[in-house]
Amino acid sequence: MSRLIVNADDFGRSRGINRGVLECHDRGIVTSASLMAVWPASAEAAEAARDRPRLSIGLHFDVGEWRCRGDEWETTYLRVPLDDEDALRTELERQLRVFRTLVGRDPTHLDSHQHVHRDEPVRSVLLELGRELGVPVRHESPHVTYRGDFFGQLRTGESTPEAVAVDALIELIETLDEDTTELACHPGYADDLATSYQHERALEIETLCDVRVRDALIDHGVELGSFYALATLRTIFR
Question: Which of 3, 91, 199, 236 is found 20 to 30 A from 40 (Cα to Cα)?
Answer without folding.
Answer: 199
